[in-house]
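Problem: given the chain below (510 residues), write out its structure.
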Amino acid sequence: MPSLPRLIPLPAVAALALATAPSPAHACGGFFCQIVVVDQNAERILFEVNGDGTVSTTVEIRYTGAAADFSWVVPVPDTPTLEGVPVAALQVLDAASAPVVFPANAPVAEASGRGGDDVADGAQYGGVHVEDLPQVGPYASQVISSDDPSALVDWLNENDYVITPEMEPFVEGYVASGMKFLGMKLASGTDVGDIAPIRMTYPADSPSIPLTLTSVSAEPEMSFVVFVLADQRYGSTNFVNLLVDDAHLRADPRTGAPTEPLAEVLGYTFLGVEGEEEAREWGQAALARSPYVTRLYTRMSNWEMGEDPAFGPVEGGDVSNVHDLSDAEPVSADLDATPAIECGTTYCGEAGLCAVTEIGEGCMCPSGFVARAIVAPRIGSLGPQDTVACQDAGFDLMASREGGIDGGIFDPCAGDPCGDGGSCVAVNGSPTCECADGFAAVNTGGAVTCAEALRAFPADQILWPGWPDDSGCSGCDAAAADPGRVPGLLALLGVAAGLAGLRRRRVAGS
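Solution.
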């Protein structure tokens, strides 16, 4: 294949309209357990458009909790064939295809990439059809279908999938469109350490992600990395596919390295995780089945996941993952003397405002939003970070279980975790904090504490000092004087080919 196509973030892709392509293949899905919804903070998905009327979808499953509580549901157009996948397969593919920025005067290398058993007839349970599938890896799987959404919801609840009244419209929508549901639990004798990605193959014309069901378990600002292996470049058919001109990028002088053809990069991508060699071999075999790979990235919050994005062939030529800034004016910085930029990398969500406190950076959330501890990506190779995002308090799929689950055995706000500066609010089965005026929510070891805000900053605070002017932060003095007066969006822009939030925009004609 020519250049590795990729839609880079800042922002990347914004979801809006319902999928219009026929028979979309779905990935992702919702995590449920017997007590609460299981939070997801990231999702990697690989679609393979096989050219024979089927789509194969490989989904990375991340879960922390008891094995007995694990359960996973995903809409499927028909009964799939399931295959096990090496644990690190999508992690290695992600690392090998990540964007690379060459700073001024750096050498540039081109990037390119080339890259079922029979099931029983099933049984009827009060209008619900259940097919038991052969065990694959650690998973005991069933395909559940019904023309009656109420009967389907009753069956799921009776079989330890938590479906609250707030979730029922999501299930009803998929039932109305003729979808079935793949349900998976951990088989007897397996444990959470056995969890691995799963590959599903079923009849479909195009890939799609069931975001409405994913919203059940998604954290605010959840990351998505989507790969599509096909015979040409793919993009969203109902999202905005946004490319950022390299002229608007500046490379962090601390990062940047050459890249080579993707299949070759996979061969020597070493992450220090278990099963890497098997994962590299699996990825190279997948690339060999399709001549073209597209990589897309975005972040979305659960209340934004109201509609399912679909993917299809798009025009416009190749998009490389290599961004050559060698002709751009270099960023001038003394790496030993340049101070840290306050609120330079903390993104609080579309409604939040970053603030500095005595115990660290945090988020000030406006009325109707609450602060929640999340794990977020970070620029460069620093890895994920514990941070905070502002969550829409009105999007609560567990509201009917407020005050505890099953007689109060689980209370997200037990122990009043927010401190003296705020109060705890249970949202989606997780503790969130409503901080008092003048206080910001700070992530302290995975939990949120409300601390007094000393300074707050608008979005342009993240500009590298001295670029594009010498101020380093236009508007910061006004924001610091009145932390509550600066509304709106704090995005990760400018200093590197970094990550960003996404904003919803309707595609013309959709």
